[in-house]
C-alpha cells in the first residue's frame, strides 16, 4: 500500500485511536462553504465522533465519519465474485446486503451465507427476487433492498449499489474519510434531461416485464402501442449506478409525497428503469433537486461508438481508472488479473487473503488514494460544475 506515513497525524486516546490524513485546505473550504450555503435542512445535523472517556487534547474537531449501506447483487454463478467484492469493500462501520437473484440456486445462496457468516453487519437476502434484465423488477429489487436496509441498519448515510462486475479502486477508509467532509444530503447520480435517441428507444415504447407475474426468468416484451412523452413531469436519464442519501430514499420508499409512487408505476412499463427512476424523482421535486451531484462515482469505459455493454477493464486500463478519481469501477471479468493488482496496490490486501482484518469501528487510515477522490469531489462541487449541472 502506498501510505505515506509522513502525511499522517495521530491522535491517541486511552480507548480509541484515530489516524487520518491532514485534511487539505480544499476540502475544509468546501465543508465550511456548505455550512453556510447549506441545501435544505431535511437531515439531522451530523453527530460528533464518539467522545472518548478522557477528553481529547486535540485542538481539531474532525467531521464525523459517515456510514454506507451497500447493496451488492449478482445472479447464478456470481457467489464467489460477491464474496470477493464484499471483502474488498468491507469495513465494520458499514452495512452490507447481498442478493443472488432467483436464477441462482438455493445451494449457491447457502454457500454465500456460509462464506460471509459471522460478519454481523452483512446480510444476505434469503427470499430472493426474480430480476429481468432491463425490466422494472430491477427497481423493485433495489427498493426491496433499501427497505431492508432502512429497517435493519439504523444510522447509515449513503446507499451504494454495486453489481458482481464492480470493484472498488480505493479502500473504504479513503471513501469514509472524504465523505466525512461532505454535507450528508448530497445525492450522486449521473443524469440529463437531454435524452436524444432514448426518447424513441426508451420513453415511447411500452414494455411488460413477465418477472412481475411469472416465476421463471425470461425477457421483457413490447406492446404495439407507443405512448407520448410525459407532460406532468420531466424525464431524466443517466447511469444506473447511484450513491443516494438516506433521507432521499426514505422519501422514495415511504412516499409521503405521491411523486415516487406515481413514477414507480410509470416506470413499470419503461425499458431499463434503473437508468431513470431515481433521476426523474429527484429532479422533479423541489426539496431534492438541489441535492444532486451529476456523477455516478464509477469509472466505466465505453467503446466508440458504444456497444450494448461497457468495456471489460484490464491491466491496460489501470492508470486511466486511477486518473478518474472514481472510488469504483465497472465492468470486470471474473478474477481478471487487474483485480489482483487493485487488491495489492490500492486496497493493501493480498488476493489470496480471504480473512478480513478487523479494524476498530472508528479507526480509519486513509491512503494516498483519498487524494484522487478528494480531487474528483472538489471538481464536482466547484462553482462551474455543481449548480450548473443539476437537473439540466
Ligand atoms: C444497481 O445495481 C444493479 C446491479 O446489481 C444494476 O442492475 C442496477 O441498474 C443498479 N441501479 C439501480 C438504480 O438499480
Ligand atoms: C434550489 O436552488 C435554486 C437555484 O440555486 C434556488 O432558486 C431554489 O430556491 C433552491 N431550492 C430549494 C428548495 O432550496
Ligand atoms: C466481457 O467479458 C465477458 C466474460 O467475462 C464476456 O461475456 C463479454 O462479452 C465481455 N464484454 C465485452 C464488451 O467485451
TrEMBL record:
InterPro entries, per this entry?
GLCAT14A/B/C, Glyco_trans_14
Residues spanning the membrane: 20-39
What keyword terms does UniProt attach to this protein? Glycoprotein, Glycosyltransferase, Membrane, Transferase, Transmembrane, Transmembrane helix
Q: Does the keyword Membrane apply?
A: yes
What are the annotated GO cellular component locations?
A: membrane
- Topology relative to the membrane: Single-pass type II membrane protein
Question: Which is an annotated Pfam family here?
Answer: Branch
Q: Which domain of life is it from?
A: Eukaryota
Does the keyword Cytoplasm belong to this entry?
no
Instruction: Report the GO molecular function annotations.
Output: glucuronosyltransferase activity
Q: Quote the subcellular location field of this record.
A: Membrane
PANTHER family for the chain: BETA-GLUCURONOSYLTRANSFERASE GLCAT14C, GLYCOSYLTRANSFERASE
UniProt-recorded name of the protein: Uncharacterized protein
* Lineage, highest ranks first: Eukaryota, Viridiplantae, Streptophyta, Embryophyta, Tracheophyta
